[in-house]
Design goal:
The protein is mainly alpha-helical and about 110 residues long. The chain has helices at about 1-5, 50-65, 70-105, and strands at about 20, 30.
Amino acid sequence: MMVLRGYHDPPAGVELAENQYFNLYMPGNAIAMAQALYNGLIEYSDGTPATATQMAKDVTTFLAWCGTPFLYEFKRTFFKVNLQSLIISCALLLILNLLFCLSLRER
């Protein structure tokens, strides 16, 4: 998100090559991609102010979702498997404890 919001005018004395833009968050503070987000670029249907910061947040949230489209299903399955493993482990420990206690009483 910071790369999308890091565009600024270069400070005095900073020389940029042709088709280079000053960005605080890029190595060397130069990037070839022009600024893509500006305030008021789009209009949200719910009335959210269309600031560049809000649009950068929306873009990064969407890209994170695209990178992990099955995350919700994965989390649910992971929780179920862990819960089942916990129940089985507790049951086995209870059985082993009972067997151990019974073997001690028989002595």
